Amino acid sequence: MARGHQKIQSQQKNAKKQAEMKKAKGHDQKTAAKAALVFTCAVCKSQMPDPKTFKQHFESKHPKSPLPPELEGVEA
């Protein structure tokens, strides 16, 4: 077991190593895909990446429900 100055040095080295690993791990596909899903359907809570897809989803899955106001001007 390290004591004193050696202990402090090993803690600093480990903190630096952990920070580098966290920085390298920052770009993965799962978080990027989750960030791209911005529109959420109010009826079924499914997520869509853009308003065009959202409108197509809403028209096909929820035809009896009224169109949300954010989809009024969107062309499908």
Summarize the SSE layout with pairings.
Elements lengths: L4 H21 L3 H8 L2 E2 L6 E2 L2 H11 L15
Antiparallel strand pairs: 1-2
Quick structural gist:
The protein is mostly helical and 76 residues long. It is 53% helix and 5% strand. It has a domain of 35 residues.
Total beta strands: 2
The class by helix and strand makeup works out as: mainly alpha
**What percentage of residues falls in helices of 4 or more residues?**
40-55%
Radius of gyration over all CA atoms, rounded: 24 Å
Placed side by side, the strands forming the largest sheet appear as 1-2
The secondary-structure element order is HHEEH
- Mean pLDDT across the residues is 86
Q: Identify low-pLDDT runs.
A: none
Strand content: 5-15%
Gap between N and C termini: 66 Å
Q: State the helix count.
A: 3
Overall, the morphology is: rod-shaped
Q: What does the main sheet amount to?
A: 2 strands, antiparallel
Pfam families: SERF-like_N, zf-met
Region (Disordered): 1-32, 50-76
Subcellular location: Cytoplasm; Nucleus
Protein name: Zinc finger protein 706
Overview of the molecule:
There is one protein chain. With 76 residues, this protein is mostly helical. The protein has a domain at 30-64. It has three helices and two strands, in the order H-H-E-E-H. Strands 1-2 form a two-stranded antiparallel ribbon. A hairpin with a 6-residue loop joins strand 1 (39-40) and strand 2. The N and C termini lie far apart (66 Å). The model has no long low-confidence stretch (mean pLDDT 86). Residues 17-31, 52-62 have a biased composition (Basic and acidic residues). Residues 1-37 form the Small EDRK-rich factor-like N-terminal domain. Residues 1-32, 50-76 are annotated as: Disordered. It comes from Austrofundulus limnaeus. Keywords: Cytoplasm, Metal-binding, Nucleus, Repressor, Translation regulation, Zinc, Zinc-finger.
